[in-house]
Model the fold of this input.
Amino acid sequence: MNSAPSVVAVVVVAVATLAIGTWGLRFSRTTSDFFVASRSVRPGLNASAIGGEYLSAASFLGIAGLVLTFGADMLWYPVGWTAGYLVLLVLVAAPLRRSGAYTLPDFAEARLGSGRVRAACSVLVVAIGWLYLLPQFQGAGLTLNAAIGAPSWIGAPVVAGVVLVNVLAGGMRSVTFVQAFQYWLKLTALLVPAVVLLMVWVGDGATAPTRVGADAAAWSLPVADGGGSGLYLTYSLITATFLGTMGLPHVVVRFYTNPDGRAARRTTVAVLGLLGAFYLLPPVYAALGRVYAEDRMSDVLVLELPRLMVGGTAGDMLSALVTAGAFAAFLSTSSGLSIAVAGVLGQDALGRSRLSGVSAFRVGAAVAVVVPCVVAIAAPDLGIARAVGLAFTVAASTFCPLLVLGIWWRGLTDVGAISGLVVGLLGSSVGVGHAFARTEGTGWWHALLSQPAAWCVPLAFLTMITVSLLTRDRIAPDVNRFMVRLHTPEAVALDRG
Amino acid sequence: MTSQPPERVRVTGPPRHPTRRRARTREIDDQTALGGVLMASLLRAQLRLAIGLLLPVGAVAVGLPLAFHLWPSFAETEVLRVPIAWLVLGFAVYPSLAALGWLYVRRAERNERDFAELLEIAEGP
Done:
């Protein structure tokens, strides 16, 4: 094994990222540039950027490993991550852009007129952001270890460093260019080796992956093992991914970079296409891994498979390409998350200090990156896609009901929103705690505790609705004006408050 | 002797619209009953569209795992040598989701155009 091509690949991606970021800096001047790229990103570029940002280590490495290890029920992860965008498009995209708010806390405050809801949302954005950053940093360690034999603690600081330089330099405006570039890099890095590997597979006689091994039938069945509780686990995964996408801070913050509501919708459709194209590939690696690799490889399957199947210099080159894509995945998702968390920290935690808008954003960015970086080195490895799945569960249980009810139901009150957020957070924290405690088990209790989304999301919705109905006198007085702002096309001249 | 000519008076018939209708955008701005109805109609159209689109998606998301759970042999049915479960979840869903998204955008923009036209009709004299 020759790791020189992989080292070169990682360095090239890091340098290209910094170079494009610096180039983008020439356009970044104002606070609005830093937070939302002055809301002038066109749908085509923006869709690539969203795709680049969204396809994280979990998509690039995690899915293939999970499908290889646990079987076809894990195919629901990429399906849910794409379907989540459809749900987002249909229920949230245009109104969220038209709300005219920078971040989720801004939206909550504008809709409900309550500082407390705003504070609760700020805490949640930071919590979800850090929960999502953690596996990115850990995945970076794993990748550098597998690809070039570096000690696994080194990945987190390397990724954190590049992200920090980029975010500090140009904020959202420059990161948009970087992420658009990284979507296409990731697609190429997975597509080219996949085509080569498929040709090798056909040349080897095309053994059907679903007929390999004693557990072939269970492996190719897209429902989790364990009878009824397995079915529950599958439903829980579907609930979390379908509904969690709209509540992810780095996804939401992207919508404010669209010029208007109509562009926000068109961007989202383009994203659906880009994600669909990408997600065709990880299952190919999983299926080939079934034939050529062993279950144990899991998270590094995508990195190792080219070397296993091709070998020699060609294998090393393909491996280098995949490593470059994986590195791009960590960088782009971490950048997006850091910007979202930095935006909230800069506005809410540091906004009242004497720092100017841009300085507060920069201090916020440093805190946003350093904390999960330290935790990533210290905390146990949860498995990339699993940990990301937890972030989706928290988002689905908290921000999903807040956004859906806030946008479509006048009756939501501040008290109702807070109650629902608290219930959703407590419920989904059960799953997070369960994962960090690393308890293993089977059966109903384990299923209910480890994947709480299927009971937790409905409970959060129910709480928000019930408490809002009980506190009807607290409905925001200007809610009708706000509904006009959310739902009417910008072309119509109306008073939007 | 120079006397000012009498000021010219324009003779017109009785106004054809005794009470000039107010622009409908004003109805919404002033939150009148009519404005409320107009807004409610837009919201209802968009929400109906959203639910009409999400219901089938939800039905598939609930139905597929249930079908595979109840009839595991169904998942093994092969089409073109690929098990049907893999064909659906690994491939067919993605173009379907993109197509649904495209359909939604067209319909949602049409709803908004209808709303805008409704307001403009009323703004004439």
